[in-house]
Amino acid sequence: MALIRLIDWSRVTKDRDPELSKIIEAAIRNNPSHHITGYLAFDRNRFAQVLEGAPGPVSSLFHRIASDPRHRDVTLVEVKAVEERSFEAWDDIQAA
Questions:
Q1: What pLDDT does 96 receive?
Q2: Element counts in the chain: helices (H) and strands (E)
Q3: 91 within a domain of the structure (yes/no)
Q4: Residue numbers in the chain where pLDDT is lower than 50
């Protein structure tokens, strides 16, 4: 299976700390069924994220994130083909 790694960052629309748990729960619930893994970091103002998986599902997820009103200034940092995953599960989540 072809894999890509997509890296993006975004700013929180406003004080959305309570929303972080909803975002994490949705990632843990939905991403495994699409074989998407990755990493999410949050510092109360910004999200930094790595998504890994097949190009179609990763692209679809990124477009949903980009249109999510909880995010602004969504920036695509990098998309590239990879041989293997760096993150095997959504257990790789950090909040500062």
A1: 47
A2: 2, 5
A3: no
A4: 96
Summarised one tens digit per residue, pLDDT across range 17-31 is: 557 778 888 888 888
- Structure-block tokens of residue 66: 């980009």
Q: Range of 26's domain? A: 3-83
Phi, psi for residue 92 in degrees, rounded to 5: -90, 70
Domain assignment present for residue 92? The answer is: no
Residue 87 is encoded by which pair of tokens? 């993150």
Q: Is residue 30 part of a domain?
A: yes
Half-sphere exposure of 21 (CA within 13 A, CB side): 2
Provide the whole-model pTM: 0.85
What's the total number of domains in the chain? 1
H or E element that contains 74 = strand 71-82
Partner residues linked to 11 by β-bridges:
46, 72
